[in-house]
Amino acid sequence: MKTLGKKIRLLRHQKSWSQEDVAKRLEISIPAFSKIETGITDVNLSRLEQISKLFDMSVVQLLTFNDAESQEKYTSEVEELNKKVTEREKEVIDLQKRIIELYEELRKAKH
Question: Which Pfam families does the record match to this protein (predicted)?
């Protein structure tokens, strides 16, 4: 349930709401809401429905929230890293060519 709490905290931050704001909307105490966010308290279905309505989403959306975003972020990070690796490989190849050229120049200069 800790991941659910993290999702709820992320949604709360996106709305710029404090724990107090959300606790009031859910008609629970701030410590009770804090325990939901930290995963100390398991969330029952009725509370889950209440929280999902608060964030204008279905229970399924709430439970799967951030999964797609994480995947998209991961994919874009991997693509960016692949580009960097490709650039570095080209740099290494260019440096290897330059080393070979310099070696050939030294060899010719000795003879």
Answer: HTH_31 (PF13560)
- Total Cβ atoms within 10 A of residue 5: 19
What one-letter code names the amino acid at 35?
K
User: pLDDT tens digits for 75-99?
Assistant: 778 888 899 999 999 999 999 999 9
Angle of helix 2-14 versus helix 19-26 axis, rounded to 10: 100
Give the C-alpha separation, 13 to 25, whole Å: 15
Count of alpha carbons within 13 angstroms of residue 97, beta-carbon side: 6
In a domain, 53, yes or no: yes
Q: How many angstroms separate the CA atoms of 84 and 92, rounded?
A: 12
**Portion of the chain with pLDDT greater than 90, in percent:** 69
**Count: domains in the chain:** 2
> Which residue range forms the structural domain that includes residue 47?
2-64
